[in-house]
Amino acid sequence: MTPSLEGVWRLSRWSVTHHKTTQNQTDTVYLPFGGAVEGYLIYNADGWVTANLMQRDRSAVCEDRVQLREMASAAPTEHNQIEQVWQWFRAGFGYVGYCGRFSVENGQVHHHVETSLIPQWVGTTLTRDIEWHDDQQELHLLATGNDMSDCLQWRRMDNR
After folding, report:
1. 7-58+94-156 domain in CATH 3.40.50.880?
2. Contact at 8 Å (CB) between 38 and 95?
3. In angstroms, how far is CA 15 from the centroid of its own chain?
């Protein structure tokens, strides 16, 4: 029987490996957000997935989004205004989130992205190889391409 993805998963590690090439003589491992990252991945029985990852200890931002939108569209020039826009930029840069349907076949999960913080992901499919560890309590999702691989390690949060 194939293990079920259904449930809540907490991120335990995220790494990106740049593989050895003619220019790069050794594999180089990079930890997004300097390893200071947390996140959750939720698969439900109706075939929906949501993923949210964030850099820990992000700075607080101005909560008046209407004022911020007006400042940003008017190309702010005052130091205070520029700093408020930069706070939102840094907060967004430290966050990844998306939602959509998912499907599983041939040892891979396909996340069919419908909404995303990253606009170019909307309408695309993120495909990940599935690896099970620790009696299906740990899930590794791997993506490879362009001389690099992305590995997100998730720990099951529910009592399956």
Report:
1. no
2. no
3. 11
Which amino acid is residue 117, in one-letter code?
A: L
- Cβ distance 115 to 99 under 8 Å? yes
Return per-residue pLDDT of the chain as tens, 160 residues: 568 999 999 999 999 998 877 666 788 899 999 999 999 999 999 999 999 999 998 888 777 777 777 777 777 677 777 777 777 778 888 899 999 999 999 999 999 999 999 999 999 999 999 999 999 999 999 999 888 899 999 999 975 5
Q: How far apart are CA 79 and CA 36, in angstroms?
A: 29
Which residue, among 86, 111, 84, 81, has the nearest Cα to 99 in the 3D structure?
111
| Extents of the domains making up the chain | 7-58+94-156, 61-93
From 15, 13, 9, 95, select the one nearest 55 (Cα to Cα): 95
